[in-house]
Specification:
By secondary structure, the protein is of the alpha+beta class. It folds into two domains: 67 residues; 139 residues, Jelly Rolls. A hairpin with a 2-residue loop joins β11 and β12. α1 runs antiparallel to α4.
């Protein structure tokens, strides 16, 4: 039985690595927990609106968690949470929350209908005072510094050298294969995921040609 050339084994290993990479779950979701330089934002009011921008890394974005806190005063009134599509500033989701409910636990999760095509999109969460029943005695926790690379904290629309403490939620356990298959189609009608997959296969075939050529070089030299 003829032996299998070494380059074939190397080529197969490369193929297995490609397949393994496609089946591994996706990366982490946008978040920034409280750091050492934590601070309390100004009390949420009609004159103080804290915001946070971030870039989503998965489809199906359905919740964002904040770290609210009560100030020295009594907590009352209502807070409005608004999620905007960052660049276009379109209002995507909104909820009115009692300020007392917001600070009842260390974190508050803003749940909403999933945004199916959220991967790669930039969002902005605004935490506003209700126009009808403005809140008192509630603020958010944040951390100073450029901690989260995909966005930043804002106060009344102006960027601050800080990030709100926040966590996002989506079906993050999505494999590379799944991500490729849900990629939107371009003008040609071809799915970008299938185009990328075809390119990966072509790359793998090219590696096989290179390995075969390199393996044959010493054998051709020895026989000449």
């Amino acid at each position: 039985m003829p032996s299998v050339p070494g380059w074939v084994f190397a080529w197969v290993v490369v193929g297995i690595v490609f397949v393994g990479a496609l089946t591994v779950a996706g990366g982490s979701l946008p978040s920034d927990d409280l750091g050492l330089r934590r601070f309390q934002t100004p009390e949420i009011a009609t004159t103080a609106t804290p915001s946070q921008t971030f870039t989503m890394t998965a489809d199906g974005f359905h919740a964002i968690e904040l770290f609210p806190t009560s100030t020295d005063g009594a907590v009352s009134g209502d807070v409005r949470l608004e999620l905007h599509d960052g660049p276009a500033s379109r209002l995507m989701r909104r909820a009115d929350v009692r300020a007392a409910d917001l600070v009842e636990t260390p974190t508050y999760r803003f749940e909403f209908a999933p945004l199916q095509d959220s991967e790669g999109k930039r969002y902005r969460l605004d935490v506003l005072a209700s126009e009808v029943n403005p809140p008192t005695g509630v603020a958010l926790l944040a951390t100073k510094g450029a901690r989260y690379a995909g966005g930043t904290m804002l106060l009344n629309g102006r960027e601050r050298w800080a990030d709100l403490a926040f966590r996002t939620f989506a079906p993050a356990e999505q494999s590379g294969w799944s991500r490729l298959m849900v990629m939107s189609a371009g003008k040609s009608g071809l799915s970008r995921g299938h185009v990328i997959l075809a390119a990966l296969i072509a790359y793998w075939m090219a590696i096989g040609v290179v390995l075969r050529t390199l393996w044959r070089l010493p054998h051709d030299t020895a026989s000449s």
